[in-house]
Amino acid sequence: MSGNKYWSKIVGELDPYVPGEQPKLSNLVKLNTNENPYGPSPKVLDAISASLDDDLRLYPDPNGDLLKQAIARFYGLNVSQIFLGNGSDEVLAHIFQALLKHKNPILFPDITYSFYPVYCGLYQVPFERVSLAEDLTLQVEDYNKANGGIIFPNPNAPTGRLLPLAEIEGLLQSNQDSVVVVDEAYIDFGGESAITLVDRHPNLLVVQTLSKSRSLAGLRVGFAVGHPSLIEALERVKNSFNSYPLDRLAIVGGVAAFDDKDYFQKTCEAVICSREKLASELSALGFQVLPSAANFVFVSHPKYNAADLSAGLREQGIIVRHFKQARIDQYLRITIGRPEQNKQLLDVLAVLLGYL
Ligand SMILES: *Cc1c(COP(=O)(O)O)cnc(C)c1O
Fold first, then answer.
1. Which of 212, 215, 321 to mutate to test the pocket of ligand 1 (most atoms within 8 A of CB)?
2. Which tens digits make up the pLDDT trace of 50-79?
3. Is the pLDDT of residue 1 over 70?
4. How far is the CA of 223 from the centre of ligand 1 (A)?
5. Whose CA is nearest to atom 14 of ligand 1?
6. Ligand 1 centre and the CA of 241: distance in Å?
7. Which of 1, 11, 155, 337 could form a disulfide with 294 if both were Cys (CB 3.0 to 4.6 A apart)?
8. CA-87 nearest atom, ligand 1
9. Residues whose CB falls within 8 Å of the CB of residue 116, separated by 6 or more in sequence, listed in order
10. What is the pLDDT of residues 91-127, one digit of tens each?
11. With contact defined as beta carbons under 8 Å apart, do 250 and 88 qualify?
12. Which residues have CB under 6 Å of ligand 1?
């Protein structure tokens, strides 16, 4: 059914985001939504278990202060520079409404996180797509025009390509009249965070999530870091929408995740090491592999159709992500799995490519 008389006008016009498949079968090798192949820190699980008591009858702290303090400790920030949300998707939603909705269109790359145009539809934010270069790199000069704001992931999704911090700084310098949002969902897998720039740039907002590098996609915790006046705008929207975006378990689990630096470093290093190994093995199979600073690789094969490869992998119980989108329809985005999963992927690909 496509709408009826009870729907508001905008609902009929929305074009909702379609997340990667979350299959009900558990025996699949799931390399399609960039989840961390390792579990969360055992200290996170302990902290959550310790909070499973009668206090769940009580509302959580609406400000999540303990988690703001843990993030402030980790990055050397003041809590007034931190905003928390129910996953970074919710943080992003509030950003579009609070800081990116202006008369001029906002700018984002033509190849990027596909939730951005969806939020533009929901909040009626005008936007313009800026083409990435032929090699799918982002050229900051192309953003040198009147705009209502700029947003891009770094590393970019789904390419995995990293924009150096010096270029972000250049972009901030030449664009002081609107907000620049850097979505750092994958920054811990090989990039340098722009959080170090927020003290010098009042128009910079950095967004991060605990879903990828801290292995807590199921807990739903994201945050933004920026000048207190940007944070205040987000708090105003949040407190007009849902006062309690983070539940009690998410707050204590998030604190433990930031406090266990050793586990965080160890698992990030393991993913990075597997990525480099997988990238070279895929190259050996004839794939072109874009340089990645994320927990996935973006690859294409000059002789094989990407949709066919994706379907062939699926038949063998391995799911990867294929985007039916101009410019990237010959690419596969493959999440880095555990070593044995990466090996399974390579074995199946070798058969599909006729090597075995
Ligand atoms: C995964 C991802 C997010 C969303 O993360 P959640 O915190 O799980 O909502 C945001 N931006 C990009 C680019 C992502 O890949």
1. 212
2. 999 999 999 999 999 999 999 999 999 999
3. no
4. 11
5. 185
6. 20
7. 155
8. 7
9. 92, 108, 127, 151
10. 999 999 999 999 999 999 999 999 999 999 999 999 9
11. no
12. 34, 87-89, 113, 153, 157, 183, 185, 209, 211-212, 217, 222
Nearest CA to ligand 1 atom 2: 185
Mutation pick for ligand 1 pocket among 138, 211, 214, 336 (CB with most ligand atoms within 8 Å): 211
Contact 36, 271 (CB under 8 A): yes
Query: What's the mean pLDDT in 78-90?
Result: 98
CA distance 273 to 339: 10
Please give the domain boundaries of the chain with CATH numbers for all domains. 11-39+262-352 (3.90.1150.10), 42-260 (3.40.640.10)
> Do residues 155 and 191 lie in contact, with contact meaning Cβ atoms separated by under 8 Å?
yes
CB 126 within 8 A of CB 169: no
The predicted model scores a pTM of: 0.97
CA distance 241 to 141: 37
Name the one residue in this structure whose structure tokens are 């009580």: 58
- pLDDT tens profile 227-282: 999 999 999 999 999 999 999 999 999 999 999 999 999 999 999 999 999 999 99
By most ligand atoms within 8 Å of CB, the mutation choice from 32, 33, 89, 138 for ligand 1 is 89
Distances (CA, A) of 107 to 60, 147, 152, 326: 36, 7, 9, 19
pLDDT in tens, 148-184: 999 999 999 999 999 999 999 999 999 999 999 999 9
d(CA 356, CA 350): 6
Closest ligand 1 atom to the C-alpha of 221? Answer: 7
Residue 28, judged by CB atoms within 10 A of its CB (0-12, 13-18, 19+), counts as middle
Whole-Å CA distances, 169 to 140, 209, 227, 341: 10, 22, 16, 38
Q: How many residues can be counted in the chain?
A: 356
